[in-house]
Design a protein that fits this description.
By secondary structure, the chain is α/β, with parallel strands linked by helices. The chain has one domain. Helix content is 23%, strand content 27%. Strand 10 and strand 11 form a beta hairpin. The chain is globular, with a radius of gyration of 16 Å.
C-alpha cells in the first residue's frame, strides 16, 4: 500500500516502485509524492508474463501476492514479541496474468543506491534478473526479505560480492561498503 515507498521517497531523490497488482498501483498513484515512478509489472528473471496469485495466505489471512504458484514459506522461528506462522507450503490457485520484467531491463545502465526486495518467495527470481546490474556494481545496497530460512546460505553466496549482515533472521542488508556490525 506504499508504506515503504513513501518512507524511501523522503530519503532518496528518485524512487521506482514496481508493483504487479493493479489495485495496489491505483492506491500507490494516489499516495506517493512526485519523486516516485510507479511501474505496473512484476520483477522476475525474464520479461514476459506470469500468473500473479492473490490467494489468501492460509495463516495470516491476507493476500499472499506472488508470481510463484508454489513456494515454501519458512520464516525464522518465532522470537519473543514477534508473530510467526510457521513453515508451510503456499499453493496459488487464483489470480491474474501480469507483465513480468527484470531489474536489469527496467534500470538498464542506471545505478541504484538501494533496492528493496519483498516479493513473497520470488526473491531468487528477482536476483537472477538483476545479475548484470549487480556484477557491474550498479546496485550499491540491497535490503531483502527471505521467505525460506533454509536458503540463507544460497542467498549469502549470491550476495557474496557485498558486505552483508542479517538485520533480523528474515531480512538481509547487503552493501558495497562495510556495515557496522554492532
Amino acid at each position: 500500500m506504499g508504506v515503504h515507498t513513501r518512507l524511501l521517497a523522503r530519503r532518496f531523490r528518485t524512487v521506482i516502485a514496481i508493483e504487479p497488482n493493479p489495485k495496489s498501483v491505483a492506491i500507490l498513484l494516489r499516495r506517493v509524492p512526485r519523486n516516485v515512478t510507479v511501474l505496473n509489472s512484476a520483477l522476475s528473471d525474464r520479461e514476459g508474463s506470469a500468473m500473479f496469485y492473490t490467494d489468501l495466505h492460509p495463516i495470516s489471512g491476507s493476500s499472499a501476492e506472488t508470481i510463484l504458484p508454489t513456494f515454501k514459506y519458512n520464516p525464522s522461528p518465532p522470537r519473543k514479541g514477534w508473530p510467526s506462522s510457521g513453515a508451510h507450503t503456499f499453493q496459488g490457485e487464483s489470480g491474474l496474468v501480469v507483465t513480468t520484467t527484470t531489474y536489469d531491463a527496467v534500470l538498464k545502465l542506471r545505478s541504484a543506491d538501494l533496492v528493496l526486495i519483498d516479493v513473497e518467495g520470488a526473491e531468487f527470481l528477482v536476483l537472477e534478473g538483476m545479475k548484470d546490474s549487480i556484477s557491474k556494481g550498479q546496485v550499491k545496497a540491497i535490503l531483502l526479505e527471505l521467505h525460506d530460512i533454509d536458503r540463507r546460505k544460497e542467498l549469502e553466496k549470491i550476495l557474496s560480492t557485498y558486505s552483508f549482515r542479517w538485520i533480523d533472521p528474515d531480512h538481509i542488508l547487503a552493501g558495497r561498503s562495510r556495515f557496522d556490525h554492532s
